[in-house]
Design brief:
Blueprint (H helix, E strand, L loop, with lengths): L12 H34 L2 H28 L2 H24 L5 H29 L5 H29 L2 H21 L20 H13 L2 H22 L1 H8 L4 H25 L5 H21 L5 H29 L5 H29 L2 H20 L2 H4 L18
Helix pairs in contact: 1-2, 1-4, 1-5, 1-6, 2-4, 2-7, 2-13, 3-4, 3-6, 4-13, 5-10, 5-12, 8-13, 8-14, 10-12, 11-12, 11-14, 13-14
């Protein structure tokens, strides 16, 4: 179980954590607006699917390729400084891009570079914040905090696109970038005055007392997951979700148009239902906290996610309202599935291993999305888009039912943190 580290000062944990969290939330809103604005700018200026795909790939690569290395560095370095440096670098490159837009001198490659840098340092920041949460929040409140995080994500899914469209109508691109710079200050300033506790460093030293290399740190993270059967199985379940569910909902516009005969308005209903569901599910998890054992909440949430996905596969073409209900159910169950899982990682993984575990899981999960799309697209073209929804829904339900009957999964939260054979996770 992760150790809670006390501070010398008397600042209540809620004051400390939510001061930082609140600033980060405001900054994330600004970042979402910039992401929407840049993608729309590329769409409007080029009308090229290749350009949009390249922009998406540039934003994805740091997490997929560099994620495990980023996590290893976060576990070694001061996490408060990582967040400060990351936020500052992102702010500076955003200012630079705003200047280029103001001078009407921006070029496509410059936007790619900015997207890459924002994604790279955003990954540093995200992993540092996730790994620091267990040191700032009491164990019994971690699941509720994850519910609040999921609620934030759901709310952003609902408001970011219309808000971004509204701002594009009244501000030039440099004005929207300035909004992001201003919002970033809410993340940077609290970090200047709020101390974040650091974990005791048990990793980073090899058997001969030498400094562990970055590659050795990455391998330690891999061995850590592989040697823990329960964590490995549950992690593979999250990979399965990314492989099946995210590609399915990426094909949602085609399903609404070709099967349900809907327009952009109907697509908006379905996608808004997903965001509203995530907000509601996150709020419920934040207030309730889930069952005593997080794994039970996750598995039941996964069943609900599968049922919601199956609705799309079986709904008649004349019943779009069923698709809206299915989208709402998937949205509600997503926080119930992922929130407790992340809380488990923060509770049972040693604090100085958490960043590399989070980054490793995120890296593999992110890599599964394009792979899933490569498989889903021809399947949908050969048969029907609903076939992939059927596959995704059944896979979620099957994984959850199997998980409920696998002792290593159901006992994941009671695992002794000593590695099998007394092998330290830091050894290469």
């Amino acid at each position: 179980m992760a150790t809670q580290f006390s501070l010398n000062d008397n600042i209540p944990w809620k004051t400390r954590f939510f001061t930082i969290w609140g600033g980060q939330a405001i900054s994330i809103i600004g970042s979402q607006l910039v992401q929407f604005a840049l993608i729309w700018y590329l769409t409007f200026q080029t009308g090229s699917a290749t350009v949009l795909a390249t922009a998406s790939l540039v934003g994805l690569l740091p997490n997929v390729i560099l994620g495990p290395f980023i996590g290893t560095l976060v576990d070694r370095w001061d996490r408060r400084r990582i967040m400060l440096v990351s936020d500052t670098v992102i702010t500076l490159v955003t200012i630079g891009l705003a200047v280029l837009f103001a001078l009407d001198a921006v070029e496509l490659w410059q936007i790619y570079v900015v997207l890459f840098i924002r994604s790279l340092f955003g990954s540093f920041h995200t992993n540092a914040m996730a790994a620091s949460t267990s040191l700032m929040v009491p164990v019994e409140h971690l699941t509720r905090i994850q519910g609040i995080n999921q609620m934030l994500n759901g709310g952003l899914n609902v408001i970011s696109a219309p808000l971004g469209a509204l701002l594009l109508g009244v501000l030039p691109m440099q004005g929207i970038l300035a909004v992001d710079v201003f919002s970033a200050l809410f993340a940077i300033v609290p970090l200047l005055f709020t101390r974040i506790p650091q974990p005791d460093r048990h990793t980073g030293i090899t058997e001969d007392d030498g400094q562990e290399t970055i590659w050795q740190g990455v391998k330690a993270g891999l061995r850590y997951v592989i040697s823990w059967p329960g964590l490995l199985i549950v992690s593979l379940m999250t990979v399965g979700i990314n492989f099946a569910i995210i590609p399915a909902f990426s094909l949602m516009p085609l399903l609404v148009k070709e099967y349900f005969g809907g327009s952009a308005i109907q697509l908006g209903w379905v996608e808004s239902a997903m965001g509203i569901g995530m907000f509601v599910g996150g709020a419920l998890l934040g207030a309730w906290g889930g069952f005593k054992h997080n794994i039970v909440t996750s598995m039941l949430g996964l069943v609900g996610m599968g049922l919601g996905t199956l609705v799309f596969a079986v709904a008649p073409s004349t019943a779009l309202w069923l698709a809206v209900i299915g989208s709402l159910l998937v949205g509600i169950m997503t926080p119930m599935t992922m929130g407790p899982f992340y809380a488990m990682i923060q509770t049972i993984v040693e604090p100085d291993m958490q960043a590399r575990i989070f980054s490793l899981l995120n890296s593999v999960g992110a890599a599964m999305v394009p792979i899933g799309l490569l498989v889903a697209a021809p399947v949908a073209g050969r048969f029907s888009i609903r076939v992939w929804f059927l596959f995704g829904g059944l896979l979620c339900i099957l994984m959850a039912i199997c998980g409920l009957f696998i002792p290593a999964v159901m006992q994941i939260e009671s695992r002794n943190t000593t590695m099998p054979g007394d092998v330290s996770p830091s050894l290469a």
